[in-house]
Structure formats: structure tokens, C-alpha cells
Amino acid sequence: MLDLKRQYESIKEEVNAAIERVLTTQHFICGPEVDGFERESAEYLGARASVGCASGTDALWLALQACGAEAGSSVITTPFSFFASVSSIVHCGAMPVLADIDPGTLNLDPAKVEKALKRARGQVRVVMPVHLYGQCADMDRLGKLALEHGVAMVEDAAQAFGAAWKGKKAGTLGKAAGFSFYPTKNLSAYGDGGCVATDDEEVADHVRRLRNHGSKRRYYHEEIGWNSRLDAMQAAILRVKLPHVDDWNQRRRIAACRYHGLLCGAGLVQAEAQTVNAKAPISLLVTLPDMHHIYHQFVVRAWRRDELRKFLTEQGIGSEIYYPVPLHLQECFAYLGYRAGDLPESERAAKEVLALPMFPELREDEQQRVTAAIAEFYSR
Description:
Blueprint: H1 4-25, H2 31-45, E1 49-53, H3 56-66, E2 74-77, H4 84-91, E3 95-98, H5 110-120, E4 124-127, H6 139-149, E5 152-156, E6 164-165, E7 168-169, E8 176-180, E9 194-198, H7 201-210, E10 215-217, E11 220-221, H8 232-241, H9 245-265, E12 282-284, E13 291-292, E14 298-302, H10 305-314, H11 344-352, E15 353-356, H12 364-379
Parallel strand pairs: 2-3, 2-4, 4-5, 5-8
Antiparallel strand pairs: 1-9, 6-7, 6-13, 8-9, 10-11, 12-14, 14-15
Helix pairs in contact: 1-8, 2-8, 3-4, 3-7, 5-6, 9-12
């Protein structure tokens, strides 16, 4: 699925020098390296502020908390995402309200969000779209809804560093955004890390307090925060990687284009197919015309998905399911009251999606092998 060693070999000397710089200074928490990364990442994104924190999960919680998600309020998001998209809402004390997804992009469906906003009758404080797999949600329609209903927009951009909507970077399309630098991400650390991006200085200041036990000045605490500081080692590594991220994202886009050509050329994809079946076993996701997709993952919908995955594993080909159980059906969220059938598009996607190998250094011959194995499976 992912070979991190190839990337490391290409930047090994720069990374080792950055680590040595931190070890020499012995400044491990926040400090100059974190300040430098915050400044450089904000400039890259086109945001006024980027505030480093300990993980992408914390970034979502910090952004939501700073934007007013609290006990007695609700936050609308998607059930088809990583667990943190909903757990971060719960940790704020707010109530998650789950709206179904668009079957083409698998991102939050604005029409379903509009219905949820009308049902909530003023309790919603935040709408949080997830830019799934590296493609932004429909931010024009979602932004219009947020404005009409007077709610904040917080982007879950954990998978979308470098993605853009109509030329504007993910992370600058709402009031705040949370990014993850987990080792598998497009911009990745060598451990956990995250940041909150925002154009609102009050939000940025609030996030800085929250990540440091609610304290702006040492030993003086205005509120109860958390310990969620980005360490200098990870910041130094991210500073090395940041100048390369556009090139790496472009390589992912080229690899995605190759997958499209190979899968269609193998007769596995039927044009305009809405469902997967024996005639069209693979369905490609839709890329919106206003979108700069950075393919954090290359995901297809597959007929007999679980059997296909087992076959690929037997051939030594990696794959992954993002995500096998939609969040409204997770045991720990049973108290929210959702039942099977409530969010049908998310439930159907969970049974069909399959992520194929995707990373910047992925070779064409490796993609040909993946495609040939898929074709072999469906020819049996």
C-alpha cells in the first residue's frame, strides 16, 4: 500500500541534518523549529495562522472547541470517515449530527446537510466537512449553507494537505481546519503531529491556549485545555518535507491518471456506471471540476470487494478498506440512536470501497501488476 522507505531515501541527508539540529539545540517542545514550521505552513496554505499540535485528532478537537462547539450544541459531519471526525465532536461535549454522503465523491452531501440544519432548529454550531481521500467537499454549497444558517465551518482536512477548491487551498475554506501529519499522510511526520489553520487571530490564540493546558502565560490558566504541543523533532522533519509536497502530490495525480487509464483499458470500468456489478466490476469515484485532488488514497468501488481483496493479498498486493463500518453503526456511538438503513449511501460505500496502492514513488509497472491482478480475479 505504501513504501515510506523510498521517500526517506530521497531526502535522507536533509532529514538527518534536521534531526541533528534539534539534538544539538536540545530544544524539544515547541520553540524555533515549531515556530518555523507554523510560519512556513501558514504561508504555503495562504492562511494567517498555523498552530502545531500533537496529532490530527487533537487538531480537530482544538479547532472545534475554538470555534464554539460545546455542551448543548451540535456539529454536523459525515459518518463515512475516520473515527476522529466524530470522536473530536464528542470530546468537545457537543452532539454529532450525521448527514449522508454523495455517492460519486463519498464526501458530505450538501443536500443532506441542509435537511439536517433545518431539523436541528438552531442547535448546530459547526458544520465539519471531511475532505475525503484528498478531494475537497463541495465547499461552495456547504459554505453557502453555513452562511445562511449562521454556523461556523471547520474543515477536517486531515487527508488533504495541498488539495484546493477553485484555486484556494484546503484549510482556508472555512473558519478553521484540522490537519494530520500521521506517517501515512501526504505531508507526514515520523510520528504523530497535526496543526490547526485559520484566518481568525482569535481562533488561533484560543488554539494556542487550549494546546497548552489553557494557559497563555506559564502557570496561569484561563480555561481547562490539554497537553497537545507539537514537538520540535517532528516540526524539523516537516520543514524538510514541506517544500517537496507539491511535487509528491503531482506524482500522486499522475499515478491516479495511470490507474484510470489502466482500469478502463482493461475493460473493468463501464462509463457512467452508477453501481458495481458483473458487467462493470469497478467504479471510479467522481472528481469535481473545481477540485485539485491530491489522492491521499486512490479508492474504487468494487464488486465482490472482500473476495477481491483476499485475492490481491494472496498475490502480494496491498489494499485497504477506508472505511468498513460507517461511524453511525459503531458500537460506541449507539447512544446517538442511528440504525442500519438510516444513512444508506454511507452503508453501501462501506461494503464496496477499496483503496489500491498509492504513494508518490509508485511505479507504472507496479500499477500494471495491480490492474492485471484485478482483471484476473474478475475473469475467473
